[in-house]
Design goal:
With about 170 residues, chain A is an all-alpha fold. Chain A has nine helices and no strands. The longest helix of chain A has 22 residues. Chain A binds a DNA duplex (30 and 30 nucleotides) through helix 3.
Chain lengths: ~170, ~170
DNA sequence: TGGGCCGGTCAACAACCGTAGAATGACCAG
DNA sequence: CTGGTCATTCTACGGTTGTTGACCGGCCCA
């Protein structure tokens, strides 16, 4: 319910009703709503395999591919609530920041931190639109198809040089 | 307040207090909380200039660039609430869908709809991380820097052919 | 047989919410 | 002076929320 409704709109009473028990029982096992959310949103740390510098793109794509054909519901609970609940936001930060710095160290350019942030933003944007908003064709496309389309993007973002065929538009005329 | 707290956590009483008036007065001018949100989240349609097929990338980048150095607070209110409030989700859909189909028609490939969805997901992922989550270097990077990094991504996503320099990893060995 | 744990229900509390309506008071037209 | 509109406040209602504590029945152990 946290994954579908977010933190504030899931009530303890509704959770209890869905479980066929009394609300007091939920309070008996989980001491507070915050704690219940903590348990429900407790994800198994999901670390990226610490691939060396150059293969970071494939590591990221493999991770994304896994998430694209079945994101754990605990992660969806965090994602759904992170914009309105400070605990969920904190949890998201705690999960994203080590990955961010890991990606950053794998990128050789000066603006590595920004490139890593962009990669992270893309991943999360895709996950959000696929699972939470279900907008456009992203909701039902096959993971492989998405991965193949994203690969060149990730490569140019993680690479020091831009591929020569991508050209900026003429600034005049 | 909707932009900072989301729909459920901003109360009419808090809005009134912030305005230095009584809650009843807010109800007098805006008839309900839903209506107050509608007014606060009422954005000026924000249409993409209907650029022809090939320049869609630059149109998109220009639009993103504008949003990167000052997203209207009404749009932030919608973004913040869209995961937990159905009205906000509807509003987001209504704003995103025409842009989606516009981008789709500008892309010549068979999987145009999916590519358009990916472009949209990237844009929204970047906006969310910059303004709502304030994670990583995305929060304070200059719009130009972000745009330049994103341009090759957008080009490969909107182009029929992949640039020859982007190579898939060998599947064996 | 008795007594303590344990899963579970019930009723209630205080706080807060959106909302409604009556009351107040200032201002301005006649 | 009067009456009516207007902005504004006050009080209150009904509902929902998280949370609490008393109560109850079955089960196991002595």
């Amino acid at each position: 319910m946290f994954a579908e409704l977010g933190y504030e709109r899931t009530t303890i009473r509704a959770v209890a009703r869905a479980a066929g028990v009394d609300a007091g029982l939920v309070m008996h096992y989980f001491d507070s709503k915050d704690n219940l959310f903590s348990r429900a949103a407790d994800l198994p740390a999901d670390e990226l395999p610490s691939g060396g510098g150059e293969e970071i793109v494939e590591v990221l794509l493999a991770s994304l591919s896994g998430r694209l054909d079945g994101e754990p519901v605990a992660s969806l609970a965090v994602l759904r609530s992170m914009l309105t609940n400070t605990d969920a936001a904190e949890r998201y930060r705690a999960a994203a920041e080590p990955q961010l710095s890991q990606i950053t160290t794998a990128i050789p350019t000066e603006d590595a931190a920004l490139r890593a942030s962009l990669l992270s933003a893309i991943v999360h944007g895709v996950i959000i639109e696929r699972y939470l908003l279900r907008l456009g064709r992203l909701a039902d496309a096959s993971p492989d198809q998405i991965i193949e389309l994203l690969r060149p993007c990730f490569q140019t973002l993680a690479a020091a040089e831009m591929p020569p065929s991508t050209v900026r538009p003429a600034s005049a005329s």
